[in-house]
Batch of 2 targets.
Target 1
Amino acid sequence: MTLARPSAAYPDPSWWGWGDEAEVPVLSQSVRRLLEDGLGVRAPAPRPDSIEDLPLAPLRLSGDAVGALAEVAGEQNVTSEPEARLRHTGGKSTPDLLRLRALDTTGAPDAVVLPGSHDEVLELLRICSERAIAVVPYGGGTSVVGGLEPAADRFTGVVALDLRRMNALVALDDESQLAVLEPGLRGPEAEALLRERGYTIGHFPQSFEYATLGGFAATRSSGQASAGYGRFDDLVLALRVATPQGTVETGRAPKTAAGPDLRQLFLGSEGTLGVITALTVELRRAPQLTVYDGWRFPSFAEGMRALRVLAQDGPMPTVLRLSDEAETALSLAAPDSLGEPPEVGGCLVIVGHEGSAEELSSRVAGVKWALERSGADRDRNAGEQWAQARYHGPYLRDALLDAGALVETLETVAFWSRLPALYEAVSRALRDSLTGQGTPPVILCHVSHLYRSGASLYFTVACAQADDPVGQWRTAKRTAADAIMAAGGSITHHHGVGTDHRPWYELETGALGVRALRAVKAELDPSGILNPGVLLAPAD
Amino acid sequence: MTLARPSAAYPDPSWWGWGDEAEVPVLSQSVRRLLEDGLGVRAPAPRPDSIEDLPLAPLRLSGDAVGALAEVAGEQNVTSEPEARLRHTGGKSTPDLLRLRALDTTGAPDAVVLPGSHDEVLELLRICSERAIAVVPYGGGTSVVGGLEPAADRFTGVVALDLRRMNALVALDDESQLAVLEPGLRGPEAEALLRERGYTIGHFPQSFEYATLGGFAATRSSGQASAGYGRFDDLVLALRVATPQGTVETGRAPKTAAGPDLRQLFLGSEGTLGVITALTVELRRAPQLTVYDGWRFPSFAEGMRALRVLAQDGPMPTVLRLSDEAETALSLAAPDSLGEPPEVGGCLVIVGHEGSAEELSSRVAGVKWALERSGADRDRNAGEQWAQARYHGPYLRDALLDAGALVETLETVAFWSRLPALYEAVSRALRDSLTGQGTPPVILCHVSHLYRSGASLYFTVACAQADDPVGQWRTAKRTAADAIMAAGGSITHHHGVGTDHRPWYELETGALGVRALRAVKAELDPSGILNPGVLLAPAD
């Protein structure tokens, strides 16, 4: 019972970096000078030549266990080949990539299983529960917060449950403008199937090209066009979830007053409460028009004020993003030109409009008028430049890691009145921590997700790699996260919790809130096999 | 630490009916004729003259227990006086009112306790937990689904925890456009405190005049202006909740990716998981302009199609409501003129616009254009008529019950593609069930809450009271609820679950979903004292 599937298999991402190797830029002379003279980057970090150079811990799963899984999913859909195991090791966080470069493959699964249906997932979870095999639900593998790092000690092995075979457009309801989709569809695959039928989901996070719909839901992903289309968790109308104890189905209607909203327990559960096997998602008509535009504000504070007024009084464009002075100067909005001297100072605003000609007619003019009134100057080419490079940021990280730099991003969200202090506190924490470690950083920031009551801050930080770059990262991360909590921000706006944010997530949720979540987990997953150690500390 | 409180105590509602006795209309001759000739209403149902005529079960709580509660809340804030107990018995559902008329006061609490602070609530819950005293959190007492009907057998008594003393505007954040408010504030009290400061919440359910903010949150209330301002659960940014096991605080930011959203567990929990002691709510600027307008469509189907297009393609007005042919004919939009012959046929649409002059300029014209294009004719006075009578519906019920009629409302919500069949199925179920009981009904319906993917249906049904009107109601209710489930609707859009909807709520949530909720309940409220039997069947 499916309407359609992608016509071709999606290419595997690079095993050592973000996605398509061919997209990794060659750093210009000016960038190399900036790294060497500005940040003191010295030795380029080595990277293994071939995936075959990576070591791998011996298999822990018995042949009997692998056989039981193969009986459910089919022989051809269960493998313990080294390359498959390595390609499902960790995610794409900076420490994940650094560990790989250091030939550390801790956390590699013992087997990769590719289920084909909800019922197969149910049966696989039942078997793994009985045999104490940890299960890591695997979508695009793009976690940047250690979401693919199971605490597997007390289990007999680890299975990566790769959902790529569950990639159908199951149903489309034109009248209700919704679609039922399987979790293994990658962003571009889902969009292609829907665009053919006149629709879009409108969800375009930076991970769009590799991440999956199941992952978007499980991590409460938020896309670059969230101002117009909403966050992914706003767009999910219903979920089907397989757990070791059976199936949960939520969502018979857009909204109800029928008790607590169980959708909101599984959204953000990061694979710890169940495996999402189908999603019902709200659709929009595919836009007739797409217009990107750039503006400059004299200062970050003035830009923030103008964005707040737009978020509170409207009209809201589809994409709205403000870079601080440092990010504007380094032109991170267009990473290919990084390091070239900035033409104009100030703070860059990217404005994108998508929709019908009718919708755009008054909205484009309204936003233009509001920005001009707030003191912004037009920067005509910046919009298109940004749109062309919108998914390229992570490739620059690959090149910078190659060159011996440490580069990382982190994000938070808070109410408007807390944002200026939060911005200062996180910037200071990163600067102090890294400078204290002998590697003074460059720190950039932008605002890219806006709400009536607040907004997110997204930081990019780059410095020279120290001798122990993972330790260097961990110290800076801890300092920044402490600063976020002290300044009243949330530990994450859209990257998720994983293992990296877990201590602060537990602080933010409070001891009793954590107990409530653990109670749900114990009920749905009594053996604790689902992504152990992610979100919540592993059970004793 | 409070900014302001209401300057005067709010008047108590009528003990035998909806709210202010003076508002109960005198039925016109034409209505009486309609009841007698059309519905076969015969004997007027008796109603006790005075609250003192009502019987009351003997007190179960020991003096020692009452003393322990008084020690926390103060002597003057704990009472077991008969009138106070009776005024906290049941809610305002039709069976609640019928039972009261039949001198049935089952479920009366043994004591009414008025806590003054979060810490007092915590301590009261601890004591009640220790002593196995059931606790019914009490806001406005306006539940129409049996939300105030505790299953108290296995407890040593029942306390109504009336939150009226917790009625402060605690804080206002102008920059973030949010307010922290206490749960005991009634709708008009909260609006008055906020309007003085230039803001509105924009939440105006029919229960607005008596219900409280805590109740709005605990039941996922949805107001008449939900198209413009959103549902109450969309407006809640943070909650502070007291439970027998301590405090849960949720919401540091507008939205986050930090795990499952715990706000969404307490929203809709109907007092079963904790007592909401503070709410952070999103505000809007108080509107400069308010415009109400009426339109007529030739048929309900054409009106539904036009409303769907508005919900999906915009622009959306602040209030949008469509009556079916029967509701339009009976002019229930303006109950004072009920029974007068309709001037024009078709289906009435009420459109309300609120906002700044700037916002309204293009929106009013856009909606007008869309409605005209869809074939609607202007009905100039209907908008203002509706706005004036917007909170009066329940008073008409009081008069009709007096006259010997049975009158009830019920609501559901579903995706657009399911709505026509759902409308037919519920209408048929009500008609068949009541006709089969010898009391053929009048059935009216309107759509008043719209989403991109679906809408709610709100039914009003009236017929003659049978000899056992509560039994008559129960049979019809069961038949209608079964029809809702079979046609793919949710058991409630905004009335909540209470005890009346519990069996269908459990069906809708599924066995495993119910187990997950029970696990949360067992963790936060291990003695099960909080509103037992509401939402979920009482524990064995």
Target 2
Amino acid sequence: MSLVVQKFGGTSVGDINRLQAVAERVVSQKNKWDQMVVVVSAMGGETDRLIDMAGVLSQNPQKREMDLLLTSGERISSSLLSIAINSLGFPSISLTGGQAGIMTDGEHLRARVRTIRPDRILKELDSGRIVVAAGFQGVDEFNEETTLGRGGSDLTAVALAAALKADLCEIYTDVDGVYTADPRIVEKAVCLKEISFDEMMEMAVLGAKVLQPRAVDLAAKYKLPLIVRSSFGEGEGTLIKMEDDFLEAPAVSGVNCDKKQSKLTVLNVPDEPGIASKLFGKLAEHSIMIDMIVQNVGEKGLADISITVNRDFAEDAESIIDGLKSEFGKIEIIRNDEIAKVSVVGIGMKSQAGVAARVFSALSGSDINILMISTSEISISVIIDTKYSENAVKLLHKEFIE
Amino acid sequence: MSLVVQKFGGTSVGDINRLQAVAERVVSQKNKWDQMVVVVSAMGGETDRLIDMAGVLSQNPQKREMDLLLTSGERISSSLLSIAINSLGFPSISLTGGQAGIMTDGEHLRARVRTIRPDRILKELDSGRIVVAAGFQGVDEFNEETTLGRGGSDLTAVALAAALKADLCEIYTDVDGVYTADPRIVEKAVCLKEISFDEMMEMAVLGAKVLQPRAVDLAAKYKLPLIVRSSFGEGEGTLIKMEDDFLEAPAVSGVNCDKKQSKLTVLNVPDEPGIASKLFGKLAEHSIMIDMIVQNVGEKGLADISITVNRDFAEDAESIIDGLKSEFGKIEIIRNDEIAKVSVVGIGMKSQAGVAARVFSALSGSDINILMISTSEISISVIIDTKYSENAVKLLHKEFIE
């Protein structure tokens, strides 16, 4: 028995005509698969419409009520898609998150999937139906509705595919697949035929918005083959698979750029044990995710600490650090919103030396000043002025990929 | 502990501003009641929007999928109302039909309430919250979503009020209450201060669209005081209560008119045992509700049978009867869509003779021909040409009420 899980995002079901097109695409593949599960997001704009209405009524709506409100979006799109598939002559049933057995913790608006109870889905598949599951949603142990956060439908698809031991999980989206760089910036960027989970994970975290990082992580854990492809065209898309399956990989598979970054530099921090941990502890308390950290110890036992955060959190982070002034003495805070993070990613880096040196020389050859650096096993990221970011992406793409 | 159940219909929550107004009205009464349950319909137009979308995708959408689709409407309005009430400083929680314990049978699109499991509502009320329950919906024993048919939110309100032993159930709508006749037709029509359940039931069935008949029936069974009032004005509305509580009632409390009727006359039906039952059995098989029946046995053992049905079913009924031609011999069918049913209703009729005679003389005095007649203990209905219907209502209102 072959089983596929396909996920269609909000733009793929943007209106009733596109939803009809998705139904046709699904049934056109029924001859290829014995069993099909389709995960669907809310129709394009619906989630924002619901959030806006709540915003008119309250500055601070209850998270629990927001979840009940937002889950309606996927209930609507999934039942409509099931109606469309049935109408094409293929038996189909739509299931809510709870009915599909998506069991989560009780953290409203950002629940984590605890387990999948696939009994109902299996029963419906065995009776020959195409199952349409509402993405983005689950229920907790008290039967309260929860949502999985932005991009949560990707997670629904991967979690169901893992639980059902699917042969393949296909993510249909509005781009052809994973590109070596943003094609709007780099003319010669190409769609990758395949990429490893580790690379995809780095790229997802580094700002490529094709896939939700938690979904990639989960797929890797279950060694679940994942394809990202366009719901509009007929392209093959990008296959994301285990690293072991690559014979020889290029040093760099992709170049990313994340412009939504801010840099905060704290000057004159006393270089004593416990000080840094207090600083980062306070930021963590307020759920502020820190990306890069660089610390320089200068003269007189005072250190400078630079961090980068997502720009949405920059103001909060600044005022939290500001609140530590009384404790930390004469610290000074410099905030810079005009920065971007440019990264090269590739599993080939593991076995090829000199990638970092090539990154630095490519950038310095064009007088692009590097403000911060961070590296992982398979990626190198640099913080530079925003104004240089597009040029940097072009230079690195040319250096490593073209 | 005093407990009220209030229900707000679709026009009362027609848009986000009206929904805000409903929230303000609810909390303004919190000082009058220890505990409040608010039942809410989908926002005006939302249900039709969902039905229209399904209609684009399928000529004949699955009832089960339609229920999943439609229940979203009340989930949205109830969570938004709860957000608005919370924002006004009053703790509130919204509950779906399933969470509110509305257990139904599995008849999608027209489910019947089997029982109420009020544990969750009671828990929330005891913790001091205003409970907002999604109207119109429930779940069956397999946790499948169901809806209760048009006007189902009235039924939700009454069923919850009965199960919770509420002191009062208030139905907020877009009219001031129950009128002696349609004020758009009869200038002197007045809003009734009170009316008995039996009268309300007759009027609801006879076409006054203020309350769903099943809801009235259920309220009567539990002797639950029911008020119909406007969600816009400040009027007292109409109290519906047990007949025993009326000292002396007028013969006629109201005059109704239902223009959505069709009359089918079947000529030359063999007057033999079993023939009529076969005719009505066939119609019942197709779920066609028959209102009035008149049978005349003529010469040669042939009978004429006239029935009235809701106009929506007239065409179906005609073709079903037409299909019996081979069995019934030379029957002939005459269909008339240009008829209306005008009724007078009043519990006083039980003890006052001559009401029927006054109806006939009032109409015949204006040369209005009566095509069919039917009576119950507390009502008299006549079928007349549509063109006379408004005049007939005026005449009868003048005769009995003014």
